[in-house]
Recover the amino acids of this structure.
């Protein structure tokens, strides 16, 4: 077991954190004057705040537990989720997508679909996105409950309800501003605690060279220390995915689908004060993202070589998901222990808050306002948004236990992304670059892509098709979803009536009123999106070469 003897100081740190986040919610409540303030922070936040919130919203259970689990199960190849599976897409979002999102003044990603394709694609995506957010929010709640149960002896149910109640409190009070400022706080707590953990753990195993030597003697062996070796057709690598599945499935479909169309992330950029700040939001976030593997992959590898039977033993403490909790329990003293547990709580609450704040915005604007009550005043929509927040948190509590059946929650989350993000990205990118795409093409493509991902997973789970690992199966499921969506969208569009070109203004490439040079003009280099993008990509290339 991972049960730790938490001191009064450790509990004091945790309680102080809970009080702080609720206090931020109370302060943020004073800023809310309109529905735009509640759902998009009045589009008033500086780039450094939205940039840190952007990356913190991603530092949930998927990132902390999931990537550490991947580090233990698949080794250094986990860096593909960052240097191939994140940075290029974040750069694309900043340079290409944000001018359209921010310039068209849409309030959500589904709203862009409504304006580009029509109500059919919009309604399908709004409903599927709402479902996806509460499922992923549930993953974070379950991870939090599991960790607190193992480490502090709390009941999983009690831990889930307490965390859900606190997130509900500060989002209901302060809306998106409360979530974002708490995410900035959570980012620094997470980095400080995990940085200390990595330093102590690495020192114990003899530094990087000592860790490498011990990984070679582990079940991963030498392949566990390389990112690119064994990715050829028929090659052998820990993930079990060749370069086609890795580059096209993860690096293109899943990555671009997540970072460019996932409203839980895009919402942070939409809250920025101007187009330049909106474009810089994902680019600023790209720099910490480049080095997050140091904080999550290394603990996974250390757990693999220091915890007996890790990944194969029968005890909960030996599951891949518990790599970081195992190291916290083993290495950190009183005080630092409280900070580390608080970091995990902060990470999971950030994941819940990001998805619940996106849920309440989409449910209020894209479902309630568009289809039920169009002309209410701001006060009414704020009140409904708070009700939607309560509903979203309650559903998240119910969905938390779906994740219980996965010993590596990354496999579950990537499956969800193949269902929801991969087909949406195909519909989105075709609609962005091809004027001929029609409303029925977009709708039919979304349905076909979602069904494609579902059928791929069904055939894999029944053993009908042979794929080496669940993660590789998710990569191929994303490829099938994207391809099915793209083919159906194009075929149906060619058979149906296109929209008038004047209706596509600001929605299609080459038809935007936004000046593409506006974000670059008369600014120092560190405020120019293209310069930041070039630097981030260059660092990603260098890191890939180092760990080839």
């Amino acid at each position: 077991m991972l049960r730790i003897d938490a001191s009064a100081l450790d509990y004091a740190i945790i309680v102080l954190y809970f009080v702080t986040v609720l206090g931020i919610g109370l302060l943020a409540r004073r800023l809310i004057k309109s529905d735009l303030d509640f759902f998009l922070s009045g589009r008033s936040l500086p780039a450094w705040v939205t940039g840190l919130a952007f990356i913190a919203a991603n530092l949930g259970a998927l990132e902390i537990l999931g990537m550490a689990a991947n580090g233990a199960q698949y080794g250094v190849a986990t860096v593909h989720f960052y240097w191939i599976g994140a940075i290029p897409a974040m750069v694309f979002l900043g340079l290409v997508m944000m001018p359209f999102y921010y310039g068209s003044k849409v309030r959500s990603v589904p709203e862009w679909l409504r304006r580009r394709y029509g109500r059919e694609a919009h309604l399908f995506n709004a409903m599927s996105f709402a479902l996806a957010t509460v499922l992923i929010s549930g993953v974070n709640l379950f991870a939090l409950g599991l960790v607190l149960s193992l480490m502090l002896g709390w009941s999983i149910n009690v831990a889930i309800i307490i965390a859900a109640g606190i997130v509900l409190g500060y989002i209901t009070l302060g809306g998106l501003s409360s979530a974002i400022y708490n995410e900035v706080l959570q980012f620094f707590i997470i980095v400080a605690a995990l940085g200390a953990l990595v330093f102590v753990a690495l020192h114990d195993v003899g530094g990087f060279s000592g860790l490498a030597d011990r990984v070679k003697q582990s079940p991963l062996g030498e392949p566990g220390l390389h990112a690119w070796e064994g990715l050829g057709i028929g090659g052998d690598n820990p993930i079990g995915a060749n370069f086609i599945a890795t580059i096209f499935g993860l690096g293109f479909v899943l990555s671009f689908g997540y970072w460019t169309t996932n409203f839980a992330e895009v919402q942070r950029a939409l809250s920025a004060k101007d187009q330049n700040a909106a474009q810089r939001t994902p680019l600023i976030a790209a720099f910490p993202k480049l080095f997050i593997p140091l904080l999550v992959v290394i603990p996974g590898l250390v757990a693999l070589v220091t915890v007996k039977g890790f990944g194969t033993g029968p005890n909960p403490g030996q599951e891949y998901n518990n790599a970081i909790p195992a190291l916290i329990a083993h290495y950190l003293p009183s005080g630092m222990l409280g900070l580390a547990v608080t970091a995990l709580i902060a990470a999971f609450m950030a994941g819940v808050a990001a998805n619940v704040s996106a849920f309440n915005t989409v449910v209020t604007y894209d479902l309630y306002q568009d289809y039920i009550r169009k002309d209410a005043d701001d006060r009414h929509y704020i009140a409904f948004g708070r009700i939607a927040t309560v509903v979203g948190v309650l559903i998240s509590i119910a969905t938390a236990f779906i994740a219980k059946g996965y010993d590596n929650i990354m496999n579950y989350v990537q499956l969800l992304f193949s269902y929801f993000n991969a087909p949406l990205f195909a519909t989105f990118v075709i609609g962005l670059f091809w004027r001929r795409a029609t409303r029925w093409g977009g709708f039919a493509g979304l349905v076909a892509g979602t069904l494609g991902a579902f059928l791929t997973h069904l055939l894999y789970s029944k053993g009908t098709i042979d794929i080496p690992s669940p993660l590789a199966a998710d990569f191929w499921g994303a490829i099938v979803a994207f391809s099915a969506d793209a083919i159906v969208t194009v075929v149906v569009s060619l058979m149906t009536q296109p929209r008038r070109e004047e209706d596509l203004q600001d929605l299609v490439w080459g038809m935007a009123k936004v000046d593409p040079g506006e974000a670059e003009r008369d600014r120092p280099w560190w405020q120019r999106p293209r310069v930041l993008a070039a630097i981030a990509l260059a660092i990603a290339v260098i890191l890939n070469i180092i760990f080839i």
In short: Residues 525 and 531 are 6 Å apart (CA to CA). The chain has 21 helices and no strands. The chain has a mean pLDDT of 87.
